[in-house]
């Protein structure tokens, strides 16, 4: 029987990062990555490819995890002469609701206290605001800037709605090329002996209460690979894979779509940060459009209130005019199916929703550029925190529930899981992401304090 020391199910960004840390950083030999399709293609390339350390509490665990992941991202950027195109433009959260200003200020102060960096308030009395650099990540501030002086908002963000009364600019944030990051880690891991096995995990064997072997289907036939360690990094299929060893993961899936389209009018400047609208909104329709939509029960819902969270960012280098827009107005849990179901309204809703924050996008209503719509599944826990660590079966490990933050958390998540596997000293934040936290009655009572888990 063929043998591997570690078998990782899934060559998405989480599985690749785990293989990288096991082999390149810790010298583990005999690691096999099992992937049914192409590496880094099922879900890892469906996100905004963004990162941030701006996370709510109730404790500092998520901020600590992201701070470590950003530190590792910056190390890779330096080592590769920024082959991964890392920037630190930040996330800008904007609101037109004056009632949100004190809540935003209180939340920002709490998040800063948890370790995200200092909060600087710009209300006309404090220090000056430093705009983000369009490129690079060195020598830029961390923490956040809360701007409540409307003249200052108009000066630095003239493209936002004139109704905007406050913006929070989270600074230790930006985006990168997830494909370049993943492929670089995969190449480094393969250079250290990692095997990429094209196939599907169809079963996991145990003996004496611990992992013994993995069954893999390839081209209609199956083989058994003996191993003492099995890692579930199966992304949207992690719940199904965990069930192979009798474990029911407390996770659910949401379908999240994203749209990219050419934006030659540059309603969003090419040097803009990630832009997020914090308010509920109604889609802007003409009177004639409203009349037509109201006539049909299947379209009447388009006239109602939509949730906060419409967000966008520029994409590409040089002469690119591409804008990525995401608006997740349906968050009902669904079973992952492929191909994912199409949403015929998504392009129009995303564009019109973004236009509430960026009025210049209204110019595309009558003749919208042809969009490219893609999507993937966010697999989440109730409090929107990951699962990283051992499973109840000895030799079984999990890196999952990475929701919409898989790219930004992958480096620290892979490092953390590698530490669990080889028995290294664990960081202070490790217990916050263990599966067994749900067996703690005190933790169950705390779940109500987590709010929306900072989901975009």
What labels describe this entry?
6-stranded mixed β-sheet, 456 residues, 9-stranded mixed β-sheet, alpha/beta, 24% strand
Characterise the protein shown here.
By secondary structure, the protein is α/β, with parallel strands linked by helices. Helix content is 26%, strand content 24%. It has ten helices and 22 strands. It has helices at 13-25, 61-79, 100-116, 150-156, 178-191, 238-243, 287-295, 346-357, 406-422, 441-446, and strands spanning 6-9, 31-35, 50-52, 91-95, 119-122, 144-147, 166-170, 173-175, 195-198, 200-207, 210-218, 221-226, 230-232, 252-262, 274-277, 281-282, 305-306, 311-315, 322-326, 372-380, 387-390, 396-400. The chain has a nine-stranded mixed beta sheet, sandwiched between helices. It has a six-stranded mixed beta sheet with strand order 9-2-1-13-22-21. Strand 11 and strand 12 (221-226) form a beta hairpin. The radius of gyration is 23 Å and the shape is globular. It starts with 5 loop residues before the first strand and ends in a 10-residue tail after the last helix.
């Amino acid at each position: 029987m063929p043998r591997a020391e570690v078998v990782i199910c899934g060559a998405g960004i989480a599985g690749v990062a785990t293989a990288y840390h096991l082999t390149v950083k810790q010298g583990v030999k005999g690691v096999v990555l099992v992937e049914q399709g192409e590496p880094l293609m099922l879900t890892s390339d469906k996100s905004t490819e963004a990162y941030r350390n701006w996370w709510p509490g109730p404790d500092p665990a998520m901020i600590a995890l992201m701070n470590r992941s950003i530190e590792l991202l910056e190390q890779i950027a330096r080592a590769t002469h920024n082959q991964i195109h890392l920037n630190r433009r930040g996330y800008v959260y904007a609101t037109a609701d004056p009632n949100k200003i004190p809540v935003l200020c209180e939340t920002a102060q709490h998040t800063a206290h948890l370790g995200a960096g200092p909060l600087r308030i710009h209300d006309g009395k404090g220090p000056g605001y430093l705009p983000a650099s369009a490129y690079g990540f060195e020598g830029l501030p961390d923490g956040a800037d809360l701007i409540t002086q409307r003249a200052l908002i108009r000066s630095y963000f003239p493209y936002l709605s004139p109704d905007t009364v406050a913006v929070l600019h989270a600074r230790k944030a930006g985006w990168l090329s997830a494909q370049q990051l993943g492929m670089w880690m995969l190449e480094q891991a393969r250079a250290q002996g990692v095997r990429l096995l094209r196939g599907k995990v169809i079963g996991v064997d145990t003996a004496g209460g611990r992992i013994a072997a993995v069954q893999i289907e390839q081209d209609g036939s199956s083989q058994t690979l003996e191993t003492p360690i099995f890692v579930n990094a199966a992304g949207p299929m992690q719940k199904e894979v965990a069930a192979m060893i009798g474990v029911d993961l407390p996770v659910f899936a949401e379908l999240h779509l994203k749209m990219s389209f050419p934006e030659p009018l540059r309603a969003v400047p090419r040097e803009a940060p990630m832009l997020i609208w914090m308010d509920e909104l109604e889609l802007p329709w003409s009177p004639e459009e409203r009349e037509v939509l109201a006539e049909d029960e299947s379209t009447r819902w388009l006239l109602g209130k939509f949730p906060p969270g419409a967000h966008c960012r520029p994409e590409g280098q040089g002469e690119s005019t591409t804008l990525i827009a995401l608006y997740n107005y349906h968050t009902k849990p669904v079973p992952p199916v492929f191909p994912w179901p199409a949403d015929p309204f998504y392009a129009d809703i995303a564009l019109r929703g973004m236009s509430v924050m960026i009025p210049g996008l209204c110019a595309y209503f009558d003749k919208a550029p042809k969009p490219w719509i893609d999507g993937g599944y966010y697999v989440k826990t109730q409090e929107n925190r990951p699962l990283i660590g051992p499973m109840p079966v000895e030799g079984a490990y999990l890196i999952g529930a990475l929701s919409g933050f898989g790219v930004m958390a992958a480096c620290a998540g892979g490092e953390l899981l590698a530490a669990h596997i080889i028995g290294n000293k664990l960081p202070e934040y490790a217990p916050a992401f263990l599966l067994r936290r749900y067996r703690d009655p005190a933790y169950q009572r705390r779940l109500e304090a987590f709010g929306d888990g900072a989901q975009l």
